[in-house]
Amino acid sequence: MYWEHIPSAVAVLDKAPPRDQLADRTLVFCPPPTPNGGLHLGHLAGPYVRADMLVRALRSMGRDAGYVTGTDDHQSYVAAAARLRGTSPVNVATAEGDAIVATLRAAGVGVDRLTRPAGDPEHAGRIRKLLDLVAASPAVTEEERETAYCPSCELSLHQAFARGACAHCEAASDGEICEACGRPNEARELTGVQCRICGTAAVTRPERALWLDLNAYADELREYLRVSSTSPDLQILVERLLDEGLPPYRLARTSAWGVDLGEGRALDAWADLALTFLDAARSESEDGGPARIALFLGYDNSFYYAVLLPVLAFAAGLGEHLPAAFVTNQFLHLGDEKFSTSRGHAVWADDALAAAGPDAVRLALLRDAPEGRVTRITEERAGRLTEDPLYLAAHAWLDGFAALGDGAVPGTGAWTDAHREFYRYLNLTTRQLDGLVLPEAFSARGYVDLLESFVRRCAEFRATEEVARRVPSLAEEARTSLALEYLAAKVFAALAWPVTPGLAERAWEWLGLPGTPVREADWSFLPSGTRCTAPAPVSALTPAASGRS
User: Fold this and answer.
1) Boundaries of each Methionyl/Leucyl tRNA synthetase domain copy (predicted)?
2) Dihedral angle, C-alpha 283, 288, 291, 295, nearest 10 °
3) pLDDT tens readout for residues 50-65
4) Closest by CA position to 148, among listed 250, 248, 245
5) How far apart are CA 354 and CA 351, in angstroms?
6) Fold of 19-138+268-380
């Protein structure tokens, strides 16, 4: 549809506010982090805090929203870490997974469904049943193919166990996927491939396994992506892969770690992850009814979630449980380089949360969210997160309510043009921010920028109104002015809850409002005579509880 008559276009947009486009029920999925180590700020800056921001925004608008993630226990990176540490994969998955869950909780990320395969005795059975559905597809065959192998470790090299250079972009790459260009590969195709455990150059040997012909579902995949909401970077990658022809995908690995398939084989970790996604989505649908699914993911996982996951769903007859919207992110760098655990080039999430508190950490990561681009944070800034301009300005503005009177909210009196326009501004800004939390148009960076502008506008309103409030003949106008200020605090609490939940909940409680912040389409004033329980929300710039989720 092409709009050439601007008044008609504006009228249509006015009749279709952003929140009317939201589903009654939304499930927000995040790729489960691999439990082979702790989370650093680079991890949190990707999908995890941004997805929580969406869930909170949806709930504040009265929508049913659930957050689904877990720990990717069966990844080869867990098995590789166990070998290097001289322990078992289940011990690594359990200990590191517990720490990851604790970090997410400390960051105010509320998870409603948590998948932990290594600790779920029924996981393997459920996943094998789904694999049986996939295996029944004519696109799945059992074949013997050459595979990278380490004769020293007597180890089949795949994913975390293989290291070389990508044949497409020449960047350093592990087996099966290149993080730099997002293209899939087979470990044996890497240039200079060697064993990650001992450094021995790889040889090849034949291995028998199940293989999935991805190209058999190319047309169905194209149609699915056409009707789904996808970010440009993901769309470019998948369309290029489809145009080049999708490679076959190996569904089983020669490994003792993962869902056991017998004969020394285990389900491929990424296939396990995709089937776990489908298992959770189907279960949520059965328990709570149909839901629109939004998937937050890192660009480096695009192939697995935008190609492998849909094809497995098509093969298993579970296409109705696929994401309707993909919300991707690139990488947050520390300085000019990627965060690196192995090189110690990282700022650990637990350390940052302990030093600055969850509100400041969340705000910094949402402000510099790597949406559509690589973003950077310096070590100096990472150590001064409470100095964020929005963090400081919001505290200062809220603290200023202590000087406005006895804490009693007046009813409105006479209105000036400035009052009317400020009230209009509160509603228009809310609508603008509503648009930025639509999964199809999601922008954490844009949201923070607009919220910062909102606080500046509220502070400016106070500065100009304070003079008028001292004029005896404008007593009725002063009542309206004060009522608008308290209303602005209510609006801020609801709009800030997805970003800084701790501060927002303290402001909401201070205003005498029940529960968690509620986002109104057209803002109603606080009842006349409402008395705030404290002169102002807590203003100390020290770590505080992140609040309810």
Assistant:
1) 27-380
2) -50
3) 999 999 999 999 999 9
4) 250
5) 5
6) Rossmann fold (3.40.50)
